[in-house]
Amino acid sequence: MKTTTSLAVPLAVGLALTAAAVAPASAATAPRTYQGSAAPAEVVLGNKDNYRTVAVRSGDMIRVELKGSRSAGSVWAWDFPASSDFAVLRPAGVGQSGNGDAWGDFRALDKGTAEINSTEQCYPEAGWLCPAVIIPWKVTIVVQ
Q1: Could you tell me the residue range of the domain that residue 76 belongs to?
Q2: Number of domains the chain is built from
Q3: pLDDT recorded at residue 71
Q4: 114 exposure class (CB count in 10 Å sphere: 0-12, 13-18, 19+)
Q5: Angle CA(6)–CA(12)–CA(18) in degrees, nearest 5?
Q6: Burial of 144 (0-12, 13-18, 19+ CB in 10 A)
Q7: What is the number of H-type helices and E-type strands within the chain?
Q8: Residue 99 neighbours by CB under 8 Å, 6+ apart
Q9: Contact 83, 60 (CB under 8 A)
Q10: In whole angstroms, what is the distance from residue 67 CA to residue 72 CA?
Q11: Global pTM?
């Protein structure tokens, strides 16, 4: 029994080393090359990105996901995000949900600077009151 065990361990180690030597290189270690420029990127922005400046490349997509909130008797809801300059940052779709969330997709076109703006405000349910407050949200996008 001892002889079998002592031969099995070196045999298993040898097989493992042989398999590693003949295995093809993994995709993680293979170098990546791109023809022309890199693929367009997607930038996702949310509530916490208020008043940020973000640099992107022409062709990149910017997705805005603003989260509203609900409290007893009211919903704090976002308006549709909007671009300040369609020649620089073109809207590709916007939407809202009943829970106060709003979203928007924008394509970076030409070099320049544009803002994406939205506002959040309170909408009361019947018999409730809301403060007369409008909360602005703005991100500056620099297309390079």
Answers
A1: 42-143
A2: 1
A3: 86
A4: buried
A5: 140
A6: exposed
A7: 1, 10
A8: 68, 70, 75
A9: no
A10: 17
A11: 0.71
Which tokens is 56 given?
């992107």
Which of 68, 56, 76 has its CA nearest to residue 125?
76
Domain at 103, CATH number:
2.60.40.2020
How far apart CA 13 and CA 37 sit, in angstroms, is 45
Tokens describing residue 101: 């969330």
Q: How far apart are CA 98 and CA 104, in angstroms?
A: 16
The CA distance from 93 to 28, in Å, is 35
Residue 15 lies in a domain: no
Q: Tens-digit pLDDT profile for the chain (144 aa)?
A: 444 444 443 434 344 433 333 333 333 333 333 344 577 899 999 999 999 999 999 999 999 999 999 988 999 999 999 999 999 999 999 999 989 999 999 999 999 999 999 999 999 999 999 999 999 999 999 999
Identify whether 56 is part of a domain.
Answer: yes
Q: In whole angstroms, what is the distance from residue 69 CA to residue 101 CA? A: 8
Evaluate whether residue 13 is within a structural domain: no
